[in-house]
């Protein structure tokens, strides 16, 4: 009986020791661990942001658009061709530009208008995000946006009296498919359909198709290098020698501005011009230096309500 | 024999008094970094909070992506360029407080909190006064502190330096219920 009691005593002491040990574990870390566990189960997926810095890689539309209530003012500027000689100061004597305004009606839908120097062209466009890439559980691997544009050129052609409004109009439909692979690298693939109401000759197609690819590599938080290649499917334009558009750019972001320094073989700045009517040839110096500047204006402030992520 | 059993029972009783945990998943952290040049503020209303009254310990945890800015672009820059929320998704605080709190008696109990604030992969010791307000079995915790972005290796480029306050004012409040 006495031996039993000694054994019991020992067990009780060990038990007590364990109990004290358990209650004396690093408690703060426990609290934080409990929180982190519940944070993990409570957190849903969130939309990936900042796939690209600007609404264009260089000329090609990106899946980015102004947020709801944001107005984006864009100046796209191209000098003349590099091979135009020292008399034209290697292109710097000439300039073409497009002024554009884009507005976010919702976080998915944006509309825009623009006016380009080339052929004195007006354009209007709509961009709608159909799918948005999410992180975390990887539910949606890509962002997909539909882009539609109508362009109408107004340059006077007294010798072509038949050029009415219909003939001057062209339409473009694009599917922008992009993925932000990591914080540095994003890529995009874009199939395009173009329709020109009037083409130069009967051998040219009114309906054209193109496939574009582009991407960016961030070199710092606020800078990235971009390239894009726009492949116009062959034998669609016969009467003129057209080239595929290749462009490279360097993005610099400072607060609400994005500056893009670029080189490209396209003079045109809208889809119906650079996709189907690129006349410059990289091989013989038909290259344009230029820049895009965009400035974001916040017109409608979001009310800070229940946060959602 | 009986003595031991009573002793164990006592220990367990003491153990249960340790479990005065108060919890919230809707705590709120707001920060303000406005300057005359730019209005900068954000709020996160999904902060997880745990307070152990018995041990005088508390912990906060929040996802940086949960901070909502009135300007969407500002929110994107906050996540992409400043706190790098894809690399370091959370801001946390864990620490102790001094001062007594009687959860059975409604009232305001000022406490002094000391602990580690973790943000942008930098851990910093902070000490600040806070208020724990007991009301109807709930505890409302409020606190205010100032932090410098540079202390957390959040680099602000010189172009925008004057647009962002040198010291960011942070308000914390959480209404915690017994867990």
Describe the 3D structure:
Chain A has a single domain, classed as monomeric porin ompg (Porin). Chain A is mostly beta strands. Chain A has helices at 2-23, 27-42, 271-274; strands at residues 70-81, 95-104, 109-116, 121-131, 143-153, 169-180, 185-196, 207-220, 223-232, 245-254, 257-264, 288-298. Chain A has three helices and twelve strands, in the order H-H-E-E-E-E-E-E-E-E-E-E-E-H-E. Chain A has a twelve-stranded antiparallel barrel with strand order 1-2-3-4-5-6-7-8-9-10-11-12. Chain A is elongated and about 120 Å long. In chain A, strand 2 and strand 3 form a beta hairpin. Chain B is an alpha+beta fold. Chain B has a single domain, classed as Beta Barrel (Lipocalin), CATH 2.40.128.110. Helices cover 18% and strands 49% of the residues of chain B. Chain B is built from three helices and eight strands. Chain B has helices at residues 2-18, 72-82, 158-161, and strands at 21-32, 41-52, 57-63, 90-98, 107-119, 122-135, 138-147, 168-178. Chain B has an eight-stranded antiparallel barrel with strand order 1-2-3-4-5-6-7-8. The radius of gyration of chain B is 19 Å and the shape is elongated. Residues 13-17 of chain B have low confidence and may be disordered. The interface between A and B is large, with 45 and 53 residues. Chain B: This is Lipid/polyisoprenoid-binding YceI-like domain-containing protein. Chain B: Pfam families: YceI. Chain B: Residues 70-174 form the Lipid/polyisoprenoid-binding YceI-like domain.
């Amino acid at each position: 009986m006495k031996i039993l009691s000694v054994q019991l005593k020992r067990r009780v002491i060990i038990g007590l020791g364990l109990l004290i040990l358990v209650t004396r574990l690093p408690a703060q870390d426990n609290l934080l661990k409990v929180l982190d566990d519940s944070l993990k189960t409570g957190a849903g997926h969130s939309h990936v942001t900042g796939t690209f810095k600007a609404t264009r890689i260089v000329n090609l539309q990106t899946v980015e658009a102004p947020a709801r209530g944001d107005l984006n003012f864009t100046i796209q500027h191209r000098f003349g061709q590099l091979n135009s000689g020292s008399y034209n100061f290697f292109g710097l004597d000439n300039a073409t530009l497009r002024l554009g305004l884009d507005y976010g009606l919702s976080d998915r839908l944006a509309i825009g208008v623009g006016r380009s120097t080339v052929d004195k062209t007006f354009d209007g466009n709509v961009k709608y995000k159909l799918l948005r890439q999410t992180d975390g559980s990887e539910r949606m691997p890509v962002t997909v946006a539909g882009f539609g544009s109508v362009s109408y050129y107004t340059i006077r052609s007294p010798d072509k009296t038949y050029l009415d409004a219909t003939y001057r109009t062209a339409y473009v439909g694009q599917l922008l498919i992009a993925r932000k692979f990591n914080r540095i690298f994003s890529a995009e693939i874009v199939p395009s359909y173009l329709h020109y109401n009037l083409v130069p000759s009967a051998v040219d197609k009114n309906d054209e198709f193109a496939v574009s690819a582009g991407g960016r590599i961030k070199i710092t938080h606020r800078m990235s290098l971009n390239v894009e290649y726009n492949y116009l499917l062959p034998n669609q334009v016969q009467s003129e020698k057209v080239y595929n558009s290749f462009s490279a750019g360097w993005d610099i972001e400072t607060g609400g501005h994005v500056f893009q320094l670029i080189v490209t073989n396209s003079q045109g700045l809208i889809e119906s011009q650079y996709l189907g009517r690129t006349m410059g040839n990289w091989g013989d110096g038909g290259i344009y230096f230029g820049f895009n500047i965009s400035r974001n204006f916040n017109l409608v402030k979001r009310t800070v309500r229940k946060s959602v992520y | 024999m009986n003595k031991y059993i009573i002793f164990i029972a006592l220990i367990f009783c003491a153990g249960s008094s340790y479990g005065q945990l108060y919890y919230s998943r809707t705590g709120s952290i707001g920060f303000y970094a406005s300057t005359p040049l730019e209005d900068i503020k954000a709020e996160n209303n999904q902060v997880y909070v745990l307070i152990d009254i018995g041990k005088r310990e508390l912990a906060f945890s929040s996802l940086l992506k949960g901070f909502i800015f009135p300007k969407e672009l500002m929110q994107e820059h906050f996540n992409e360029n400043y706190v790098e929320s894809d690399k370091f998704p959370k801001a946390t605080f864990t620490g102790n407080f001094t001062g007594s709190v009687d959860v059975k008696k409604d009232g305001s109990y000022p406490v002094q909190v000391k602990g580690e604030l973790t943000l942008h992969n930098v851990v910093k010791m902070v000490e600040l006064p806070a208020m724990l307000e007991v009301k109807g079995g709930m505890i409302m915790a409020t606190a205010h502190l100032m932090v410098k972005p540079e202390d957390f290796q959040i680099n602000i480029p010189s172009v925008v330096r004057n647009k962002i306050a040198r010291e960011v004012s942070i308000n914390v409040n959480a209404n915690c219920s017994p867990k």
